[in-house]
Amino acid sequence: METILSLLIGGLFAAGIYSILRRSIVKLVIGLIMLSQSVNLLILTAAGLTRGNPPLLPKEGFVTGQGYADPLPQALVLTAIVISFGVISFTLVLLYRAHQKLGTDDLDKMGESDQ
Amino acid sequence: MFSIYLMLIFFLLTPLVSPLFKFFKEKANWVLAVFPALFFISMMMMIPTIQYGPKIISLQWVPSIGVNLDFVFDGLSILFALLVSGIGILIFIYAGSYLKNHPLISRFYVFLFIFMASMLGLVLSDNIILLFIFWEATSISSYLLIGFDHENPEARKAALKALLITGLGGLSLMAGLILLGSITGSYTISGMNPVTANSPLYGLTLFLILLGAFTKSAQFPFHFWLPGAMKAPTPVSAYLHSATMVKAGVFLLMRLNPILGGTADWHLWVTLAGTTTMLTGSVLTLGQKDMKGLLASTTIIALGILVTLIGLSTSLAAKAALVFLLVHSLYKGSLFLVVGIIDHETGTRDITKLHSLTWVLPFSAFSAVLAAFSMSGFPPLLGFISKELLYEAKIQAPSAGEIILITGFLANAVNVTVAALIAIKPFLGRKKKISHHIHEVPFSLWLAPFLMAVAGLLFGFFSDSLGRLIISPALAVIHAEPTVVKLKMWHGVNEVFLLSVITVLTGIIFYFLYPQFIRMAGKLSRLRRFSISTIYERFLTGFQKFSYRVTVFLQNGRLRYYLMSVLIAMILLVLLFIFPFSEIEWKLEITDIYFFDLALVVLILIAAALVLFTSSRLTAIVALGIIGYGVALIYALYGAPDLAITQLLIETLIVILFALVIFRLPNFRSFSGKLTRWRDAFIALASGAVVTILTLKAGSLQFHPNISGYFLEKSYREAYGKNVVNVILVDFRALDTLGEITVLTVAAIGVFALLKLKRKQK
To answer: CB of B248 within 8 A of CB of B141?
Structure first.
């Protein structure tokens, strides 16, 4: 299953990069969203996948040999999801304001407005 | 010990220079000269000690990497230290008058202080790393001194030239010294054993170190920075050319002679460089009209002579080199300072325009004549002894003696000519002809050249003590076997004496032919196009243009080009390092594929394609939602319910936020052409492929033991939580979570501020 997911990760990454390379500011934000989805999946997949069996312990606590899913990458991804939300919402509002102020949605023209 | 602290304190004293000038005003140069004087006296007091062998002082600095403040006091270091500090005293006094009322005079003294202290540190260092640090410090401080007149573009150019050439040599020297340190296993020169030519790294080490020494000592083909360095204020030129800077390379060769010298390679390259430099210097000298230019070119000759002598590797040659070094420092310093006085008073340095100056500048005339006699090697001055030794050493050269002797003869004859040009031409003439604007200079100006010239005379009289007390211990450093040096004035009429006479006669013939030389140089000036200096300048301009183009290409101010370079670098580097890893097995089993998962993945990929190619903003939002929820489902399937919940929540928020903003933004537009889109698509697909390969690889790699077992085990027992992911977040890695909360807060404040700003404007 890792193989299929790896393809998905690569596909989302490529889509994200292609979007970021556009000159339109909206595409930039869309690219960021897809890129962070891809990287989150990457962290989880790279650590090895376990279908079902979440790391939730039974009442008596830890029992060896249960084959739980790895909890550490999950914790990392959880942080990453929340951070990327912060980044994306900030970028979105920033670009919205920039568009209002500068009257263009072309990243190249935004750079020129500094001069 | 005292002297070492004194030298190190020089560096710390530099901030005090400016207040001293405020306090003592025009007498500050005398106060400042006390510091080199103290050092000079402390070195004089060391002379009796070093007769019994070198004295080493070591202070800990960075012992872990073998860099300590190791200093050595032996004949060689004392000789150089005496020259540097002794001439330093005179330069300090002279410069105060020379640059009187200059607005930046205190800055000048700061540079001069740093320069002198670095030079002293360089000659006293026993540790090669320390030596290198001081070496670079002299390069940097001489850059500041040469470019002191920074409003003059020529001075800036000359300063940069000196810095680039000596800096290049400095890099090479560093590599060479580190190699030397690793070959000999010691970073102190006193602890090194001689490196034999059989050592596999000998050739490379020698090449790198020689390159360093040759650039600093202006050997061919690096000689061209030296004439430029006379753009500095004259006291600096005098100092750089006589006792310091250019002698650093000669010093290094002398210092390393017992370790690297004596081999056939050493003999060949050092002698070759020296002889070529002598010849180049002689050719460059003839035909110049600028007095400073004449002196600068003869410095090139002198350096060539010194390097040739070191290359000869005989005890006699080393002795001749040491005596000539001393003589040259004294007469060159004196003549430069006299030229400075003439320039200061008349406003010109053109020998064809100057005459009759004896009537107004008697002390300068006296100093110039005395120094010129030393330069041309007349008895009873030290210069005579030096020249006799030079010829003797060259006649007894182990090989290629004829070439060395002929070049040396030419070089000495040119020296005689220049001595006559400087000391006779500007001073002869009738009193009536002289302009009334020229006056005698104050005591503080004529004292320095006068003392240096007189020193050349006194050393001639007391040559015996000089040879015994200073030259012998110095020679013992260059040539390990102890020799007692006897310097004698009169050797009788032998072939060496006859050579001296012919040299002087040739020099005088050149002097009378000099107008012809000037005319010839004028005709040949077109050849300057092919000079090394011009090649250097072409290269520099070309390199600047190249850097400009590269900068404009790379730093174009467009985010996506930066991103592209990062991505392309990532793709290439990953591919470069992945392929050698071929022994890692690829996790390519396709047996464990569930239909539901596959359908989900395909759905997400279709949604991603839709996002890219749709022109409707609403479709894009919906497709983004599909991607987000799809990913959430994958999390749920693979044992990560917490992730799934968070993802659902966040995705919903993003879609709402996006929907709010996107309709205030213009429609999707395509700004780029077809070709650009294909290029971007290629980069995107390539980076996607690299990420896929990395993910596949990562499954089969385990660099460190997995720590998840620890979390699973301790989660309930120590943190009393059954949801391990949550326990990690709020307990094991709670600080991370705190950081995350901070980031979110900052983002929220940012969003709030951005939206609030808009309201105020309305």
So the answer is: no
